[in-house]
Design brief:
alpha/beta, eight-stranded parallel beta sheet, binds alpha-D-psicofuranose, 16 helices, 409 residues, binds manganese (II) ion, 49% helix
Length: 409
Protein backbone atom coordinates (compact mmCIF):
# COMPACT_ATOMS: atom_id res chain seq x y z
CA UNK A 1 0.00 0.00 0.00
CA UNK A 2 2.83 2.37 0.86
CA UNK A 3 4.04 2.03 -2.69
CA UNK A 4 0.67 2.80 -4.16
CA UNK A 5 0.03 5.90 -2.05
CA UNK A 6 3.46 7.36 -2.72
CA UNK A 7 2.88 6.90 -6.43
CA UNK A 8 -0.64 8.27 -6.58
CA UNK A 9 -1.88 10.07 -9.65
CA UNK A 10 -1.72 13.58 -8.20
CA UNK A 11 1.76 15.05 -8.33
CA UNK A 12 3.44 16.78 -5.41
CA UNK A 13 5.48 19.93 -5.94
CA UNK A 14 8.80 18.12 -6.39
CA UNK A 15 7.28 15.87 -9.03
CA UNK A 16 5.87 18.91 -10.81
CA UNK A 17 9.30 20.50 -10.68
CA UNK A 18 10.79 17.29 -12.09
CA UNK A 19 8.35 17.42 -15.03
CA UNK A 20 9.12 21.09 -15.68
CA UNK A 21 12.87 20.56 -15.70
CA UNK A 22 12.62 17.48 -17.87
CA UNK A 23 10.62 19.44 -20.44
CA UNK A 24 13.37 22.07 -20.50
CA UNK A 25 15.80 19.39 -21.62
CA UNK A 26 13.84 18.00 -24.56
CA UNK A 27 14.44 19.33 -28.04
CA UNK A 28 13.39 17.24 -31.04
CA UNK A 29 14.46 17.89 -34.61
CA UNK A 30 11.81 17.94 -37.34
CA UNK A 31 12.42 16.32 -40.74
CA UNK A 32 12.11 18.61 -43.78
CA UNK A 33 10.59 15.69 -45.72
CA UNK A 34 7.72 15.45 -43.22
CA UNK A 35 6.21 18.64 -44.65
CA UNK A 36 6.29 17.62 -48.32
CA UNK A 37 4.03 15.24 -50.25
CA UNK A 38 5.18 11.70 -49.70
CA UNK A 39 3.47 8.39 -50.12
CA UNK A 40 3.90 4.69 -50.39
CA UNK A 41 5.13 2.68 -53.37
CA UNK A 42 1.47 2.43 -54.35
CA UNK A 43 1.05 6.16 -54.79
CA UNK A 44 0.70 9.53 -53.10
CA UNK A 45 -2.26 11.49 -51.77
CA UNK A 46 -1.46 15.12 -52.45
CA UNK A 47 -2.22 17.78 -49.88
CA UNK A 48 -2.82 21.35 -51.04
CA UNK A 49 -0.95 22.74 -48.00
CA UNK A 50 2.14 20.57 -48.44
CA UNK A 51 5.50 22.27 -48.86
CA UNK A 52 6.78 22.87 -52.40
CA UNK A 53 10.38 23.71 -51.60
CA UNK A 54 12.82 23.90 -48.71
CA UNK A 55 11.74 27.43 -47.79
CA UNK A 56 8.16 26.23 -47.26
CA UNK A 57 9.51 23.38 -45.16
CA UNK A 58 11.51 25.83 -43.03
CA UNK A 59 8.41 27.99 -42.48
CA UNK A 60 6.34 24.95 -41.50
CA UNK A 61 8.99 23.61 -39.14
CA UNK A 62 9.41 27.07 -37.57
CA UNK A 63 5.63 27.22 -37.07
CA UNK A 64 5.71 23.92 -35.18
CA UNK A 65 8.60 25.24 -33.07
CA UNK A 66 6.85 28.53 -32.30
CA UNK A 67 3.81 26.63 -31.03
CA UNK A 68 5.59 23.87 -29.09
CA UNK A 69 8.92 25.46 -28.11
CA UNK A 70 10.55 22.06 -28.48
CA UNK A 71 11.97 21.70 -31.99
CA UNK A 72 14.62 24.27 -32.68
CA UNK A 73 16.09 22.63 -35.79
CA UNK A 74 15.12 20.93 -39.02
CA UNK A 75 16.91 17.97 -40.60
CA UNK A 76 17.59 18.22 -44.32
CA UNK A 77 18.04 15.59 -47.01
CA UNK A 78 20.82 16.78 -49.30
CA UNK A 79 19.28 15.91 -52.68
CA UNK A 80 15.74 16.80 -51.72
CA UNK A 81 16.46 20.17 -50.16
CA UNK A 82 19.57 21.69 -51.75
CA UNK A 83 19.48 22.69 -55.42
CA UNK A 84 21.25 25.21 -57.67
CA UNK A 85 18.98 28.01 -56.42
CA UNK A 86 18.70 26.65 -52.87
CA UNK A 87 22.32 26.70 -51.73
CA UNK A 88 23.28 25.57 -48.21
CA UNK A 89 24.13 29.18 -47.37
CA UNK A 90 20.73 30.58 -48.39
CA UNK A 91 18.88 27.67 -46.76
CA UNK A 92 20.73 28.22 -43.46
CA UNK A 93 20.07 31.95 -43.65
CA UNK A 94 16.36 31.35 -44.27
CA UNK A 95 16.20 28.99 -41.30
CA UNK A 96 17.93 31.48 -39.01
CA UNK A 97 15.50 34.19 -40.12
CA UNK A 98 12.60 31.95 -39.11
CA UNK A 99 14.18 31.26 -35.71
CA UNK A 100 15.35 27.68 -36.22
CA UNK A 101 18.61 26.02 -37.22
CA UNK A 102 19.50 23.51 -39.89
CA UNK A 103 20.10 20.28 -38.03
CA UNK A 104 21.30 16.92 -39.21
CA UNK A 105 22.48 16.56 -42.77
CA UNK A 106 21.25 13.43 -44.55
CA UNK A 107 23.22 12.37 -47.64
CA UNK A 108 21.21 10.52 -50.27
CA UNK A 109 22.85 7.19 -51.09
CA UNK A 110 19.86 5.48 -52.63
CA UNK A 111 18.16 7.49 -55.34
CA UNK A 112 20.73 7.60 -58.10
CA UNK A 113 20.40 4.79 -60.67
CA UNK A 114 24.05 3.92 -60.10
CA UNK A 115 23.16 2.68 -56.59
CA UNK A 116 21.19 -0.30 -57.91
CA UNK A 117 23.75 -2.67 -56.36
CA UNK A 118 24.47 -0.42 -53.39
CA UNK A 119 26.54 2.62 -52.43
CA UNK A 120 29.33 1.90 -49.91
CA UNK A 121 28.83 -1.81 -50.55
CA UNK A 122 28.65 -1.62 -54.36
CA UNK A 123 30.89 -4.13 -56.18
CA UNK A 124 32.09 -1.32 -58.49
CA UNK A 125 34.88 0.78 -56.89
CA UNK A 126 33.87 3.82 -58.96
CA UNK A 127 30.38 3.81 -57.49
CA UNK A 128 31.76 3.34 -54.00
CA UNK A 129 33.95 6.36 -54.61
CA UNK A 130 30.95 8.36 -55.90
CA UNK A 131 29.08 7.50 -52.68
CA UNK A 132 32.07 8.45 -50.53
CA UNK A 133 32.41 11.80 -52.28
CA UNK A 134 28.74 12.54 -51.80
CA UNK A 135 29.21 11.89 -48.06
CA UNK A 136 32.32 14.07 -47.92
CA UNK A 137 30.40 16.86 -49.71
CA UNK A 138 27.60 16.42 -47.17
CA UNK A 139 30.09 16.79 -44.32
CA UNK A 140 31.27 20.04 -45.96
CA UNK A 141 27.66 21.24 -46.15
CA UNK A 142 27.27 20.38 -42.47
CA UNK A 143 30.31 22.54 -41.71
CA UNK A 144 28.81 25.45 -43.67
CA UNK A 145 25.51 25.09 -41.80
CA UNK A 146 27.13 24.58 -38.40
CA UNK A 147 25.43 21.19 -38.21
CA UNK A 148 26.81 18.75 -35.72
CA UNK A 149 25.24 15.58 -37.09
CA UNK A 150 25.63 13.74 -40.36
CA UNK A 151 23.14 10.89 -40.54
CA UNK A 152 24.02 7.97 -42.78
CA UNK A 153 21.29 5.60 -43.82
CA UNK A 154 22.23 3.00 -46.40
CA UNK A 155 19.70 1.28 -48.59
CA UNK A 156 22.51 -1.18 -49.36
CA UNK A 157 21.98 -4.90 -49.37
CA UNK A 158 21.11 -7.74 -51.70
CA UNK A 159 17.86 -9.33 -52.82
CA UNK A 160 19.05 -12.89 -53.41
CA UNK A 161 21.30 -15.40 -51.67
CA UNK A 162 24.70 -15.45 -53.36
CA UNK A 163 24.16 -12.08 -55.06
CA UNK A 164 27.28 -10.61 -53.42
CA UNK A 165 29.81 -11.31 -50.70
CA UNK A 166 28.47 -10.14 -47.34
CA UNK A 167 31.99 -9.92 -45.88
CA UNK A 168 33.45 -8.00 -48.83
CA UNK A 169 30.66 -5.48 -48.45
CA UNK A 170 31.28 -5.22 -44.70
CA UNK A 171 34.96 -4.44 -45.34
CA UNK A 172 34.02 -1.77 -47.88
CA UNK A 173 31.74 -0.13 -45.30
CA UNK A 174 34.53 -0.19 -42.70
CA UNK A 175 36.98 1.49 -45.07
CA UNK A 176 34.63 4.20 -46.31
CA UNK A 177 33.12 5.04 -42.93
CA UNK A 178 36.63 5.55 -41.57
CA UNK A 179 37.31 7.97 -44.42
CA UNK A 180 34.11 9.88 -43.61
CA UNK A 181 35.13 10.00 -39.96
CA UNK A 182 38.51 11.50 -40.87
CA UNK A 183 36.72 14.44 -42.53
CA UNK A 184 34.75 15.41 -39.40
CA UNK A 185 35.51 18.45 -37.29
CA UNK A 186 35.91 17.75 -33.59
CA UNK A 187 32.33 18.79 -32.78
CA UNK A 188 30.68 16.68 -35.48
CA UNK A 189 29.13 13.24 -35.09
CA UNK A 190 28.58 10.57 -37.68
CA UNK A 191 25.28 8.85 -36.96
CA UNK A 192 25.00 5.34 -38.41
CA UNK A 193 21.41 4.21 -38.90
CA UNK A 194 20.44 0.54 -39.21
CA UNK A 195 17.45 -1.13 -40.82
CA UNK A 196 16.78 -4.86 -41.13
CA UNK A 197 14.86 -4.85 -44.43
CA UNK A 198 13.67 -2.70 -47.31
CA UNK A 199 14.59 -1.84 -49.98
CA UNK A 200 16.92 -4.84 -49.87
CA UNK A 201 14.97 -8.00 -49.19
CA UNK A 202 17.56 -10.73 -48.64
CA UNK A 203 20.25 -8.99 -46.60
CA UNK A 204 20.77 -5.40 -45.51
CA UNK A 205 24.40 -4.34 -45.02
CA UNK A 206 23.70 -2.46 -41.76
CA UNK A 207 20.83 -4.57 -40.52
CA UNK A 208 20.82 -4.04 -36.77
CA UNK A 209 22.26 -2.09 -33.84
CA UNK A 210 25.09 -4.58 -33.34
CA UNK A 211 26.31 -4.16 -36.91
CA UNK A 212 25.96 -0.38 -36.66
CA UNK A 213 27.92 -0.44 -33.39
CA UNK A 214 30.75 -2.55 -34.90
CA UNK A 215 30.98 -0.13 -37.81
CA UNK A 216 30.88 2.90 -35.50
CA UNK A 217 33.68 1.50 -33.33
CA UNK A 218 35.85 0.86 -36.39
CA UNK A 219 35.11 4.29 -37.92
CA UNK A 220 36.21 6.28 -34.86
CA UNK A 221 35.16 7.85 -31.57
CA UNK A 222 32.81 10.38 -33.17
CA UNK A 223 30.71 7.71 -34.89
CA UNK A 224 27.59 6.65 -32.99
CA UNK A 225 24.50 4.57 -33.61
CA UNK A 226 21.17 6.06 -34.63
CA UNK A 227 18.05 4.18 -33.53
CA UNK A 228 15.10 4.61 -35.87
CA UNK A 229 12.24 3.16 -33.85
CA UNK A 230 10.55 1.90 -37.04
CA UNK A 231 13.59 -0.13 -38.04
CA UNK A 232 12.98 -3.18 -35.87
CA UNK A 233 11.12 -6.45 -36.16
CA UNK A 234 7.74 -6.75 -34.47
CA UNK A 235 8.51 -7.76 -30.94
CA UNK A 236 12.05 -6.43 -30.57
CA UNK A 237 12.91 -4.89 -27.21
CA UNK A 238 14.01 -1.44 -28.32
CA UNK A 239 14.52 -0.10 -24.79
CA UNK A 240 17.07 -2.84 -24.19
CA UNK A 241 18.97 -1.75 -27.31
CA UNK A 242 18.82 1.83 -26.01
CA UNK A 243 20.11 0.76 -22.57
CA UNK A 244 23.02 -1.13 -24.12
CA UNK A 245 23.96 1.67 -26.49
CA UNK A 246 23.83 4.19 -23.63
CA UNK A 247 26.07 1.98 -21.56
CA UNK A 248 28.48 1.65 -24.49
CA UNK A 249 28.42 5.49 -24.87
CA UNK A 250 27.37 4.92 -28.44
CA UNK A 251 23.79 6.11 -28.63
CA UNK A 252 23.97 9.05 -31.03
CA UNK A 253 20.34 9.75 -31.72
CA UNK A 254 16.86 8.66 -32.61
CA UNK A 255 14.55 8.77 -35.55
CA UNK A 256 11.18 8.61 -33.86
CA UNK A 257 8.07 7.15 -35.45
CA UNK A 258 5.79 4.22 -34.74
CA UNK A 259 5.10 1.04 -36.63
CA UNK A 260 2.49 -1.68 -36.74
CA UNK A 261 3.80 -3.91 -39.51
CA UNK A 262 6.99 -2.59 -41.10
CA UNK A 263 8.66 0.81 -41.39
CA UNK A 264 5.24 2.47 -41.40
CA UNK A 265 6.37 5.99 -40.37
CA UNK A 266 3.29 6.36 -38.17
CA UNK A 267 3.01 9.05 -35.51
CA UNK A 268 5.26 8.42 -32.49
CA UNK A 269 3.40 6.50 -29.81
CA UNK A 270 0.26 6.05 -31.90
CA UNK A 271 0.53 2.26 -31.69
CA UNK A 272 2.56 1.69 -28.52
CA UNK A 273 3.03 4.74 -26.27
CA UNK A 274 4.22 2.52 -23.40
CA UNK A 275 7.20 1.49 -25.50
CA UNK A 276 8.17 5.12 -26.07
CA UNK A 277 7.79 5.70 -22.33
CA UNK A 278 10.05 2.70 -21.62
CA UNK A 279 12.68 4.07 -24.01
CA UNK A 280 12.58 7.45 -22.26
CA UNK A 281 12.70 5.66 -18.90
CA UNK A 282 16.02 4.02 -19.87
CA UNK A 283 17.39 7.46 -20.74
CA UNK A 284 16.22 9.07 -17.48
CA UNK A 285 17.54 6.06 -15.57
CA UNK A 286 20.97 6.42 -17.21
CA UNK A 287 20.93 10.17 -16.47
CA UNK A 288 20.09 9.46 -12.83
CA UNK A 289 23.16 7.20 -12.52
CA UNK A 290 25.37 9.56 -14.52
CA UNK A 291 24.24 12.77 -12.84
CA UNK A 292 23.32 14.44 -16.13
CA UNK A 293 21.47 13.71 -19.34
CA UNK A 294 23.57 12.14 -22.10
CA UNK A 295 23.83 14.08 -25.38
CA UNK A 296 21.29 12.50 -27.73
CA UNK A 297 20.05 13.89 -31.05
CA UNK A 298 16.30 13.41 -30.96
CA UNK A 299 14.70 13.57 -34.39
CA UNK A 300 11.38 12.71 -35.93
CA UNK A 301 11.36 10.61 -39.09
CA UNK A 302 7.71 10.57 -40.10
CA UNK A 303 6.01 11.23 -43.40
CA UNK A 304 2.29 11.56 -42.95
CA UNK A 305 0.44 10.37 -45.99
CA UNK A 306 -3.11 10.83 -44.69
CA UNK A 307 -2.92 13.22 -41.72
CA UNK A 308 -2.44 16.95 -42.37
CA UNK A 309 1.29 17.42 -42.02
CA UNK A 310 1.74 20.33 -39.63
CA UNK A 311 -0.93 19.26 -37.09
CA UNK A 312 0.53 15.74 -37.23
CA UNK A 313 3.96 17.12 -36.28
CA UNK A 314 2.47 19.20 -33.46
CA UNK A 315 0.63 16.11 -32.20
CA UNK A 316 3.91 14.15 -32.35
CA UNK A 317 5.91 16.73 -30.41
CA UNK A 318 3.33 17.28 -27.68
CA UNK A 319 2.88 13.52 -27.25
CA UNK A 320 6.66 13.06 -27.05
CA UNK A 321 6.84 15.77 -24.38
CA UNK A 322 4.12 14.06 -22.40
CA UNK A 323 5.77 10.64 -22.55
CA UNK A 324 9.20 12.07 -21.76
CA UNK A 325 7.79 13.96 -18.76
CA UNK A 326 5.99 10.84 -17.50
CA UNK A 327 9.24 8.85 -17.71
CA UNK A 328 11.03 11.52 -15.66
CA UNK A 329 8.58 10.67 -12.83
CA UNK A 330 9.81 7.11 -12.37
CA UNK A 331 11.06 7.04 -8.75
CA UNK A 332 14.44 5.55 -9.53
CA UNK A 333 15.70 5.28 -5.93
CA UNK A 334 12.59 3.38 -4.95
CA UNK A 335 12.81 1.29 -8.11
CA UNK A 336 16.42 0.28 -7.38
CA UNK A 337 15.40 -0.69 -3.88
CA UNK A 338 12.59 -2.93 -5.16
CA UNK A 339 14.95 -4.40 -7.76
CA UNK A 340 17.49 -5.30 -5.07
CA UNK A 341 14.83 -7.11 -3.08
CA UNK A 342 13.41 -8.84 -6.14
CA UNK A 343 10.06 -7.09 -5.51
CA UNK A 344 8.88 -7.51 -9.07
CA UNK A 345 5.34 -6.19 -8.71
CA UNK A 346 6.38 -3.08 -6.79
CA UNK A 347 9.19 -2.44 -9.27
CA UNK A 348 6.89 -2.73 -12.23
CA UNK A 349 4.39 -0.46 -10.51
CA UNK A 350 7.02 2.27 -10.35
CA UNK A 351 6.86 2.34 -14.14
CA UNK A 352 3.13 1.80 -14.47
CA UNK A 353 2.20 4.56 -12.02
CA UNK A 354 4.54 7.05 -13.67
CA UNK A 355 3.10 6.14 -17.06
CA UNK A 356 -0.45 6.65 -15.79
CA UNK A 357 0.29 10.00 -14.11
CA UNK A 358 -1.54 12.87 -15.72
CA UNK A 359 1.10 15.47 -16.56
CA UNK A 360 -1.07 17.63 -18.79
CA UNK A 361 -1.67 20.40 -16.22
CA UNK A 362 2.06 20.73 -15.58
CA UNK A 363 2.69 20.76 -19.33
CA UNK A 364 0.32 23.70 -19.54
CA UNK A 365 2.25 25.43 -16.75
CA UNK A 366 5.50 24.83 -18.67
CA UNK A 367 3.98 26.32 -21.81
CA UNK A 368 2.75 29.38 -19.92
CA UNK A 369 6.23 29.82 -18.40
CA UNK A 370 7.66 29.82 -21.93
CA UNK A 371 5.01 32.10 -23.45
CA UNK A 372 3.69 29.25 -25.55
CA UNK A 373 0.05 28.44 -26.24
CA UNK A 374 -1.34 26.01 -23.66
CA UNK A 375 -2.88 23.92 -26.44
CA UNK A 376 -0.57 24.05 -29.46
CA UNK A 377 -2.93 22.11 -31.74
CA UNK A 378 -5.86 24.40 -30.98
CA UNK A 379 -3.62 27.45 -31.38
CA UNK A 380 -2.55 26.16 -34.79
CA UNK A 381 -6.15 25.60 -35.87
CA UNK A 382 -7.04 29.15 -34.80
CA UNK A 383 -3.95 30.74 -36.37
CA UNK A 384 -5.16 30.75 -39.99
CA UNK A 385 -1.74 29.42 -41.09
CA UNK A 386 -3.15 26.32 -42.81
CA UNK A 387 -5.60 28.39 -44.89
CA UNK A 388 -2.91 30.89 -45.82
CA UNK A 389 -0.40 28.27 -47.00
CA UNK A 390 -3.12 26.33 -48.79
CA UNK A 391 -4.12 29.22 -51.03
CA UNK A 392 -0.48 30.32 -51.49
CA UNK A 393 0.79 26.85 -52.40
CA UNK A 394 -2.14 25.90 -54.65
CA UNK A 395 -1.54 29.10 -56.64
CA UNK A 396 2.24 28.64 -56.74
CA UNK A 397 1.85 25.06 -58.00
CA UNK A 398 -0.37 26.42 -60.79
CA UNK A 399 2.16 29.13 -61.64
CA UNK A 400 4.99 26.61 -61.65
CA UNK A 401 2.98 24.10 -63.70
CA UNK A 402 3.47 21.37 -61.07
CA UNK A 403 -0.12 20.73 -60.03
CA UNK A 404 -0.95 17.11 -59.22
CA UNK A 405 -2.51 15.21 -62.09
CA UNK A 406 -5.79 14.72 -60.19
CA UNK A 407 -7.73 17.02 -57.84
CA UNK A 408 -7.13 16.98 -54.09
CA UNK A 409 -9.26 14.54 -52.09
C1 LIG B 1 14.94 5.02 -44.22
O1 LIG B 1 13.84 4.22 -44.04
C2 LIG B 1 14.87 6.27 -43.34
O2 LIG B 1 14.52 5.91 -42.03
C3 LIG B 1 16.18 7.05 -43.36
O3 LIG B 1 16.37 7.71 -42.14
C4 LIG B 1 15.95 8.03 -44.45
O4 LIG B 1 16.79 9.13 -44.41
C5 LIG B 1 14.50 8.39 -44.21
O5 LIG B 1 13.90 7.16 -43.81
C6 LIG B 1 13.84 8.96 -45.40
O6 LIG B 1 12.46 9.12 -45.16
MN1 LIG C 1 15.18 7.05 -40.33
Amino acid sequence: MAVLSSLSNAMDSSQKECVLRSLDSLDIELPSWGFADTGTRFGKYYQPASAIDVYDKIKDAATVHRLTGACSSMAVHVLWDFTQEHSPESVCQAARKEGIGIGSINPNLFQDQSYKLGSFGNPDPQIRSQALHHCLDSIEIAKQCGSENITLWFADGTNYPGQDSIRRRKHAFETLLKQCHQALTSDQTLLIEYKPFEPAFYHTDVADWGMALCLAHKAGAQAKVLVDTGHHYGSQNIEQIVAWLLDEESLGGFHFNDRRYADDDLTLGSIDPYQVFRIFTEIHSFAKDLGSLPPIAYMIDQSHNLKPKIPAMIQTITWAQELYAKASLVPFDMLRDHQKRGAIIEAEQCLQRAFMTDVTDTLRVWRREHNLPEDPLAAYAASGYEDAITSDRVQRRKDLGIEPESTYA
